[in-house]
């Protein structure tokens, strides 16, 4: 059963999570000094980090639905609801394949963490600089052509109560530009691990990961991407309910 952690237990889990994250980042950075990190090395580093972070909070999770074959030569994007700091670790342990986070450029500025996620091939799109945005887009395309699955949150910001917020169009424009297949993913219950606006930590929380039906952006050309947004939002709300 899920239970609220006591003060010292809460401090230990948080400290252990931070220390382990720093150690993982340092390992990745050291590996990068000896050359480019391979896709397999990056997969192992990110998935291994996620597994430990999930275990520290004793999250009990189940997957519903099946992911498509990410090795069939198409480009794929996971569009996931965002209600917790555990969304990305949960996605990494629950979804197969080489998953990379479509990061905010601000994350690159975080000491150790920013350098490590860059070394592992987590791209960012700088929409404020048009020339840089084009280079970032080309990099994202190249990554997906290598079998990388891009993870992003179409809500843009974290939901405080686990309910789905309005979706932003940026990710759908990227999907259209890269002719990607979108796979809706909903993680339910994870917002209760670290409830927003509190200092609580709930251990042993049950979390369900729902994988929706893939949607091909090529079926929604031009401004029809708005219909694609609606289809993804409808699926995500149905899975969440």
Automatic annotation (TrEMBL):
<dbReference type="InterPro" id="IPR002123">
    <property type="entry name" value="Plipid/glycerol_acylTrfase"/>
</dbReference>
<feature type="domain" description="Phospholipid/glycerol acyltransferase">
    <location>
        <begin position="76"/>
        <end position="190"/>
    </location>
</feature>
<keyword id="KW-0472">Membrane</keyword>
<keyword id="KW-0012">Acyltransferase</keyword>
<dbReference type="GO" id="GO:0006654">
    <property type="term" value="P:phosphatidic acid biosynthetic process"/>
</dbReference>
<keyword id="KW-0808">Transferase</keyword>
<protein>
    <submittedName>
        <fullName>1-acyl-sn-glycerol-3-phosphate acyltransferase</fullName>
    </submittedName>
</protein>
<comment type="pathway">
    <text>Lipid metabolism.</text>
</comment>
<keyword id="KW-0812">Transmembrane</keyword>
<keyword id="KW-1133">Transmembrane helix</keyword>
<feature type="transmembrane region" description="Helical">
    <location>
        <begin position="12"/>
        <end position="34"/>
    </location>
</feature>
<dbReference type="Pfam" id="PF01553">
    <property type="entry name" value="Acyltransferase"/>
</dbReference>
<dbReference type="GO" id="GO:0003841">
    <property type="term" value="F:1-acylglycerol-3-phosphate O-acyltransferase activity"/>
</dbReference>
């Amino acid at each position: 059963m899920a239970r609220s952690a006591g003060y010292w237990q809460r401090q230990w889990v948080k400290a252990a999570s931070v220390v382990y994250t720093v150690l993982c980042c340092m390992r990745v950075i050291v590996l990068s000094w000896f050359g480019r990190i391979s896709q397999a090395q990056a997969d192992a580093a990110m998935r291994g980090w996620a597994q430990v972070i999930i275990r520290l909070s004793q999250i009990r999770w189940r997957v519903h639905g099946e992911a498509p074959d990410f090795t069939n030569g198409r480009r794929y994007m996971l569009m996931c609801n965002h209600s917790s700091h555990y969304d990305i670790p949960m996605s990494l342990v629950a979804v197969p394949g080489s998953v990379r986070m479509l990061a905010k450029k601000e994350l690159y500025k975080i000491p150790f963490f920013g350098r490590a996620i860059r070394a592992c091939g987590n791209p960012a799109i700088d929409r404020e600089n048009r020339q840089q945005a084009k280079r970032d887009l080309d990099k994202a395309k190249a990554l997906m052509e290598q079998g990388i699955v891009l993870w992003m949150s179409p809500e843009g910001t974290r939901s405080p109560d686990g309910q789905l917020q309005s979706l932003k169009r940026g990710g759908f424009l990227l999907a259209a530009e890269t002719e990607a297949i979108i796979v809706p993913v909903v993680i339910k219950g994870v917002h209760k691990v670290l409830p927003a606006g509190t200092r609580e930590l709930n251990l042993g929380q049950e979390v369900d990961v729902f994988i929706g039906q893939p949607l091909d952006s090529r079926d929604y050309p031009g401004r029809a991407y708005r219909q694609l947004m609606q289809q993804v939002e409808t699926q995500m709300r149905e899975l969440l309910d």
